[in-house]
Amino acid sequence: MPDLDAVVQEIAAEMAQRSDRGEVAHYIPELARVDPGQFGIAVVGTDGAAAVAGDGDLPFSIQSISKVFTLTLALGMIGDRLWRRVGREPSGNPFNSIVQLERERGVPRNPFINAGAIAVTDVIVSGHQPRESLGEILRFMQFLSRDATVTIDAAVAASEKRTGFRNTALANYMRSFGVTENPVDFTLGVYFHHCAIAMSCRQLATAGLFLAHGGRDPETGFSVVSAERARRINALMLTCGHYDGSGEFAYRVGLPGKSGVGGGILAVAPGRASIAVWAPGLDAAGNSHLGRIALERLARRMGWSIFG
Amino acid sequence: MPDLDAVVQEIAAEMAQRSDRGEVAHYIPELARVDPGQFGIAVVGTDGAAAVAGDGDLPFSIQSISKVFTLTLALGMIGDRLWRRVGREPSGNPFNSIVQLERERGVPRNPFINAGAIAVTDVIVSGHQPRESLGEILRFMQFLSRDATVTIDAAVAASEKRTGFRNTALANYMRSFGVTENPVDFTLGVYFHHCAIAMSCRQLATAGLFLAHGGRDPETGFSVVSAERARRINALMLTCGHYDGSGEFAYRVGLPGKSGVGGGILAVAPGRASIAVWAPGLDAAGNSHLGRIALERLARRMGWSIFG
Amino acid sequence: MPDLDAVVQEIAAEMAQRSDRGEVAHYIPELARVDPGQFGIAVVGTDGAAAVAGDGDLPFSIQSISKVFTLTLALGMIGDRLWRRVGREPSGNPFNSIVQLERERGVPRNPFINAGAIAVTDVIVSGHQPRESLGEILRFMQFLSRDATVTIDAAVAASEKRTGFRNTALANYMRSFGVTENPVDFTLGVYFHHCAIAMSCRQLATAGLFLAHGGRDPETGFSVVSAERARRINALMLTCGHYDGSGEFAYRVGLPGKSGVGGGILAVAPGRASIAVWAPGLDAAGNSHLGRIALERLARRMGWSIFG
Amino acid sequence: MPDLDAVVQEIAAEMAQRSDRGEVAHYIPELARVDPGQFGIAVVGTDGAAAVAGDGDLPFSIQSISKVFTLTLALGMIGDRLWRRVGREPSGNPFNSIVQLERERGVPRNPFINAGAIAVTDVIVSGHQPRESLGEILRFMQFLSRDATVTIDAAVAASEKRTGFRNTALANYMRSFGVTENPVDFTLGVYFHHCAIAMSCRQLATAGLFLAHGGRDPETGFSVVSAERARRINALMLTCGHYDGSGEFAYRVGLPGKSGVGGGILAVAPGRASIAVWAPGLDAAGNSHLGRIALERLARRMGWSIFG
């Protein structure tokens, strides 16, 4: 087994030298200002080991990575009834496509495309004020990352709200079919805010550790979800976690993962480690360009692919 | 670790008692006549162990499962140039959809939907007579299954050819974009015939063993593909192997797999075993109903999920 | 030439006896309460003749028929620049489809599908308060119908606003592409209200008279639009005026027309007459069932088809 | 009333001077060789007047214009039963799209897109040898154009057959749903050949005269179809005759018309004249660029728009 810390440092050094960095997301004004030269990585093992390199302690906008955690919360609230409102299949379309919704009567294909994550957020919002729901999500993130300083970047949330016409379209569209039930403004408000949570790679990798360890925190033994549910969330990340680049990510990296347009990716090596990388530049499918390459190298050098 | 043989017998017994069996594929007349009461299973371990139960030694039409092996062959012939003609993403559409082809200029989304498999077959056909190409595919299957008696069911092939208007449409459509290059009749002839290969669960599980063992036959050490290519084929099976039910299969079973409308499924537990199940009745997405349930139980009882 | 008044009375009598009446629109609660047994018709000739029968003097919700007049207004404001924001082709999709918008970057196919009419309304709203824009539209309708009592049914407008999630989706979707420019709430507010204008067949037929008379009011000679623009609006009504039933309407009736989900249809016999019919029950494409049949009979008996 | 002959000469002169000529269809090799500098026009009045200018006596490949006549023939054979196999709505898609066929179970939207015309041809083929069906179509064209020298350009037909993969896809696709019934090769053979009929503008305008005169030849009084059927064919030409440019043609020209990728357009001024124009260069929607402009001018100068 290669030395994890050495591999992580090595990869950070390699990434620092690359000039191909993709394009920073420009449709959210606040994100468009981020320096594309940054790169962070953090690996937290189920054995307690941790390796952090580059900008791995700098907070960034986790964006859609939050969808893994809101899915976890919503499943905890209503269990498999969630699947009446959202499917479990890859979409075959870009992350913000509305075409599939028309064909399938407002039911989004999976919880990781925008429409699906809005439907999941709507479940969390049910019966609560937006402020309460948001508080619950934030506390969950602080708890999982063992860090009470995790917070929401209000400027990013406001920026998304101001420019989120397409997400507003998706939300209203689903509401027209009764797939969501709460006032569209409530649900979208919570959605825009949990996407604007800011975390470092170290915090994020820690937060995802339960997915690599049968649903439990390996340090405290606290059970976040059952082992079966952890496996299933991993399966959904693998098939749907990278929008219309999910097949490519599985093919190249071979680990369950979820990307965000902030340039972060959370990946899970079951039984071994939780990994977070961050590089703001995106590829054509909206996933972190260097983030994916870094994970590909890490998985190969550590022999962590789930595919053999 | 539970006893493999006991688990396999147990599952076969459980399946024999179920009355929910799905519907036998009716669009290929020869397949419509198959008795839906049959069920077979075979598990071949990378350690040489084998467990077979039910109708696990009865040959059935492997249909689309052949696409795993034609993909392997075509990659051996032209390597990554194959990916100029076919993508690596889940389709988000039924197995025989032509919609995506129009949107993406004739390039099928992945090698496991019908259009993609026809494009892969076209690569194998290039520069050869159909008869030679077909011979090569058949010999490859005999070699991998260590059984020279594996053969093609000519009646099934003829039945598909007579009624294969939709596949003929797909093939001509891709040809119009130059994605395929050979005479449409040549390519389709080979395609219909390799889908009509008949194998038992035991033969099929043996043939897939290299995918569970880093690309090599564990008995002889013969290398079929590199370890990396084996991993990548597994990744493709996981994200795309069950048409528009691929997400569901990953979610429930947690193993790479490829189904066929004959009711067979080949699944791979990396590092552990190659598995073949067969139950002719299909679910709405065209995958074996009991086959999937049997694999779900096997993976859970043996602890073989790749997701933790 | 048959006697117009006799033909109109005859058709009203025939329609009164039919039991096939289609289904009243149920997605707008206020409209769902309308009595499907009603039928009205009014024909106003370019020669000043008028024939009214049945409930031809009862006001009903003109709904999408208002789109003919908002199009006329918007063309008067910005002329052919309007066509940068909306197309002139039949959509091949239901009236509230969003699929086409995704494929064509937010530009609706024509001004008569919901998305297109919202884009047209957005032009009228530009630079004004919603209340002013709405006032302008209403005054235009009063002027054209020569009746200052024409008004907006506030209950219907409120009902649409409360339940108009799908239109809200369309509006936000176009806004995300910059096809519309004003606050979505402003534009939708005006849209919901002009769709809620209530008019009788007599008022509506009078309002449409300029389209049958080279763009001018035949009584006063006042020019509403140029003769060419009148022809072009008629052409758009013929190809796009009945959503995905436009081909059928042209085939059966042979006159330019625009339907609304309130059960009204405005039709134009160029050089001869403006016609309004009203029967609340709709067919599968969302067009008045008896309204279409009545117009088919009128066109045939009067020899008014534009197709020979 | 302006002098028809003067107007026609004038338009031919204007067209000769234009340098914007569109692009000659390149996907049929034989058509790609045609000189884009040619322009022909012929107007045949219901009163017997005829005006021909430019290359109006040169034969060209009528291509899809033949679909008007095969529709007429098929309606004569099986009447309104034809509409079980093909719709009457504009498609909202390019002429050779297959997307709509998947959504609507193999039933093409109208008889003038490629799929619809193949379905219509399949009706004509039923119960006959391809050679007989083709003979019938050709004799019909000779009869209508009062010219027994009209013939099929075998080189064009062969060229289409060799490269017609997309039409072959459409035909097989419909066959898979049972929308067509005859051997795909038979139907396609006849289809490719009737599209390859070569006619001059003068011959074509003569052939279409019955559509401008209530279904009858004004000279002989011979009734080709009923007046109602003539109107209905005109309506279909208006809504569907120019593929995804039908709305535009109605908007600009205001006459029923049918275009072909050979650069011809047949247009009908009901009660007045039948018109054929030919200019090989096409616009983006596949319709003759100068042909449309010439018709727009003719309709305006003669006051022939059906819209007022």
UniProtKB/TrEMBL annotation, chains A, B, C, D:
Keyword set includes Acetylation: yes
InterPro entries: Beta-lactam/transpept-like, Glutaminase
Keyword Acetylation: yes
EC number: 3.5.1.2
Family: Belongs to the glutaminase family.
UniProt xrefs under HAMAP family: Glutaminase
This protein's name: Glutaminase
Lineage of the species this protein comes from: Bacteria, Pseudomonadati, Pseudomonadota, Alphaproteobacteria, Hyphomicrobiales
Gene that this sequence comes from: glsA
